[in-house]
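Ligand-bound model needed. nicotinamide-adenine-dinucleotide.
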Amino acid sequence: MGLLDGKVAVITGAGAGLGRAYAMLLAQEGAAIVVNDFAGVGADGMTPAQRVVAEIRSAGGRAVASHWDVGTVAGGEAILKDALDAFGEVHILVNNAGILRDKSLVKMEEGDFDIVVRVHLKGTYCVTKPVFAHMKDSGRGGVIVNTTSTSGLRGNFGQTNYGSAKAGIWGFSNSLAIEGQKYGVRVWTIAPAAASQLTDATTSEEYKRTFTPERVAPVVLYMVSALSGAATGKTLLAGGGYVSEIRMEMGSGFTPPESFTAEDLAAAIEAGKVLMPERDLKYVNAYGPTAKA
Ligand SMILES: NC(=O)c1ccc[n+]([C@@H]2O[C@H](COP(=O)([O-])OP(=O)(O)OC[C@H]3O[C@@H](n4cnc5c(N)ncnc54)[C@H](O)[C@@H]3O)[C@@H](O)[C@H]2O)c1
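Prediction:
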């Protein structure tokens, strides 16, 4: 008995890295997998998505490849159609596809900004909308996992485009979790850290050994399985064998008198009443700046 017997999962960007690890683990737990990835045919005559499908099938699992670009409405609808044609329903969606175009702001062209926002943030919208509608209409609900990043939640040098897209995905998820409650659709957000082709250029050999995609995959399995019960609307940071909730916090605050000055606020801040103490955030941006100034 697997944790996901009888379930169907769509995983975007699952031809490599984290998505591939999620696909392998979810398939091992019994889910039929739609392996989406738009990357083209390699020297072996196969696409990365086809290679992952072959791996899943040779381990006895069920999977189909789907090569649509997540960043278009037509692509999102076609991914759902591939899933329904192959397996008749969808219970799980993991929005994972992603790219980087790191540059400091003054060197960032409009195209570098647009493409990153299109693939990550708009891609999350494009795939989620039809899948969410299917989950709602089926009356059975489902689970959606969206992918944010500490670069969006905390910031990182050279990633104003990526940080904007990833913070946007976090906001998208917070609202979708509220909308999903009515229909039994749970929404989780993951901020992963793992060595992959995305981070290769900037990570050490030790990082590559410690931060494997396989050490993140069980967190996604927890999110999409009955193990997480009715939980929804939460974000987990996961990487290198470390998992923690990461969330927005407010301090105890300062209630100014009806009439107050900027100096009054400065005094309250000086007295420690407004700003919150910096906390040591383990593994946040553990792989460091990704772009040169
Ligand atoms: N690796 C990390 O440390 C890290 C940290 C924070 C967030 N993330 C996020 O995790 C996700 C996976 O990253 P990864 O490190 O495994 O990267 P990866 O490059 O190994 O895999 C991403 C896959 O997405 C595919 N893809 C890209 N654009 C696509 C599109 N438009 N349509 C369909 N497929 C597309 C690529 O072909 C690739 O196979 C990304 O969203 C990334 O931003 C990764």
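The chain has a mean pLDDT of 94.
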